[in-house]
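WARN no homologs supplied; continuing
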Amino acid sequence: MDGDGCIDEDEFSAVCISYGITPDEAKEAFKKFSQNGAIEVTRSVFAKYWEEFFASEDPNAPGNFIFGKTSFD
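OK structure emitted
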């Protein structure tokens, strides 16, 4: 949202919260897909995760958390 081409935890959480995800769950989801403690995710990495969301059979793949959910119960 600041125009730098990257997504940080605050930006990610703000979008998720606007769709009804709790702040805690949004922050947890960001941690799951921003691997290795990264403080932001680049556009190219996010694009990779978008593909992973649709193509991966691994339920723990980082792309499975791009919508802010950490569980679907």
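The longest strand covers residues 6-8.
OK
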